[in-house]
């Protein structure tokens, strides 16, 4: 077991910031944990997916399934049914990255799904195998959160591991774990739609600084006792879009 965990928050196709944070990764001493949502909204889903897969294969990184990986896989299973909601949540940028810009104007949802399946079979198989959480000492790393009403958090519905919000944020954490999560941007958790700092409350640590919306991306180093380092890179390409 490595001495530290290095957790990187939601990437959403922002390859430039993702690569910066990966450059801070020490394979000898860090267990790397990618918190999910590497795809959608940002311009470089393909590069983010492939780097995530490479880090798992070459460095034994943990890549957690997020709700946007789930969106992508559901679209491939049922392209006509999932197309419109997926487009509204950043799918167009993913199609443009994996195929080519303007692909949604050229092809039907079924054609898009068929082309992605034919070109990215290994990636799709890899995404289907992603775990829902990772336990390390007294820490639990999960994309969205857990059902705090369960006597044993392991009994959380798989959907909640990748989708839950307020019931987890507002519930009492009696798990005995410090729960590190992404999914909900920290400006929303702080309640001001501005603050991109980590959100820390009741042994819950939110690390999604909303990079794709003009906020920041966090890489957080933990030892057994707490946070050792918070590396935060701001998105300098555009204004904050959270309001």
TrEMBL record:
It is an enzyme of class 3 (hydrolase). Its EC number is 3.1.3.16. Residues 5-187 form the Calcineurin-like phosphoesterase domain. Coiled coil: none annotated. InterPro entries: Ap4A_hydrolase, Calcineurin-like_PHP, Metallo-depent_PP-like. Keywords: Hydrolase. SUPFAM superfamilies: Metallo-dependent phosphatases (SSF56300). GO terms for biological process: RNA decapping. GO terms for molecular function: bis(5'-nucleosyl)-tetraphosphatase (symmetrical) activity; protein serine/threonine phosphatase activity. GO terms for cellular component: cytoplasm. PANTHER family: METALLOPHOSPHOESTERASE (PTHR42850), ZINC-DEPENDENT ENDOPOLYPHOSPHATASE (PTHR42850:SF4). This is Phosphoprotein phosphatase. It comes from Enterococcus hirae. The gene is pphA.
């Amino acid at each position: 077991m490595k001495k530290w965990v290095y957790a990187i928050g939601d990437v959403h196709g922002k390859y430039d910031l993702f690569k910066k944070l990966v450059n801070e990764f020490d394979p000898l001493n860090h267990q790397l944990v990618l918190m999910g949502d590497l795809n959608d909204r940002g311009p470089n889903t393909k590069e983010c997916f492939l780097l995530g897969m490479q880090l798992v294969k070459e460095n034994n990184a943990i890549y957690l399934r997020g709700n946007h990986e789930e969106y992508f896989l559901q679209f491939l299973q049922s392209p006509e049914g999932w197309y419109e909601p997926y487009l509204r949540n950043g799918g167009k940028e993913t199609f443009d990255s994996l195929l080519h810009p303007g692909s949604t104007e050229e092809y039907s949802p079924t054609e898009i799904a068929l082309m992605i399946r034919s070109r990215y079979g290994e990636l799709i198989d890899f995404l289907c195998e992603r775990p829902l959480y990772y336990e390390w000492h007294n820490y639990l790393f999960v994309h969205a959160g857990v059902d705090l009403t369960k006597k044993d958090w392991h009994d959380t519905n798989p959907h909640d591991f990748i989708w839950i919000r307020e019931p987890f944020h507002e519930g009492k954490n009696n798990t005995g774990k410090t729960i590190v999560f992404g999914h909900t941007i920290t400006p929303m958790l702080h309640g001001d739609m501005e603050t991109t700092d980590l959100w820390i409350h009741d042994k819950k640590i939110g690390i999604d600084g909303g990079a794709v919306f003009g906020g920041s991306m966090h890489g957080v180093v933990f030892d057994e006792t707490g946070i050792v380092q918070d590396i935060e890179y701001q998105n300098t390409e555009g204004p904050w879009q959270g309001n």
